[in-house]
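Progress report, Aim 2. The chain analyzed during this reporting quarter is listed below.
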Amino acid sequence: MDRFEDMRNFVRVVERQSFTKAAGDLLIPRATMTNSIQRLEDRLGTRLLERTTRTVKPTHDGEAYYHRCVRILADLEDADTSFTNPDPRGLLRVNLQGTLARTFIIPAISEFKERYPCINLVIADGDRFVDLVHEGFDCVLRSGDLASSSMIGRRLTLLREVTIASPDYLARVGIPETLDDLEAQGHQMVCFLSGADDKPIPLDFVVAGKVREITLPPSISVTGADTYAACAAAGLGLVQVPRYRVVDDLRSGRLVEVLPEYPPEPMPVSVLYPQNRQLSARVRVFVDWICDLFARTEF
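Predicted C-alpha cells for the chain:
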C-alpha cells in the first residue's frame, strides 16, 4: 500500500472518528486500516490520533496533517482524472432528502450511472440534520434556508409551497378568508420540528411582498416530512408543504388549499458539500448532474 492510500485512510478515520466506520466506507478490513495508520505514524515519527473506547480524534499534529492530506489528495485526484483517467471513479456517499430523492432523483439515477459507471454510489435518505464530514458524506441535498456554515452550497430551485388542510378539519373549524381568521376561528397547526435542536417552524405567508410569520397552537409536533403531510390528511390542522408533494391529493379533494392569495414563501433546494472536497471529480460530476436535472425539471 503506498503512502497516498495511507493518507486517504487517515483522512477517512479523522472524518468518521472511527476505524471501523472508516474501513467500512473504504471497503477494507479494519485490521488493514489499523496497520495503515500505524505505518503512517511510524513514518512521520509522531502520534496522529488519540484513541479512546468511544471515539478517535486527531492530535495537534494530526489536525495539521489532516488538512494537508485533504488538499494533497484532492489535487492528486483532480490531476489523475484530468490526464490519465477522464472517467471519475471510486466511492461517492450522498445524503438526500427523502421525498425529493424518491420523486425526482431516483427515477433519473440510471442516467447518472450510465454516464459514470465507475462511480460506486451510496445513497442515504432522511430529513434530519447531517454532519457531512463526521458522518462520511461527500454531499447532501436539502430543502429550506441554509444556515451559515463552512459548507459550499449551490441553489438548485425554488419549490412552490401551499397551505393545506383536510375537508373534515375545515368543516369543523372553518375556512379562513384572511390571516386574522386563523386566530379568530381557532385554527391549529401541525408543528414541524427542524434541525439539530428541533426548532419549531412557524407558518409563513407572503403579504404585499413581505413575509408574515404566524404560530398557531400546535395539535401535534413531528420531525418527518411524510408524517407532517399525513397529519394534515388526518385532520390535525394546517400544514405548509411543497405543492408537488400533494398535487394528487389536491386534485382528488383529499386535501384543500387554504388562503391561496397569501402563499407561503417558496422553499429553496440546495446541494451542499464540504470545502475540502470541492476538487473531487466524483463530487463535481454528481453536483453538476443534479443541477442539470433540476434545471430541466418542472415543479
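The chain has a mean pLDDT of 87. The chain is about 40% helix and 25% strand. These observations will guide the mutagenesis work planned for the next reporting period.
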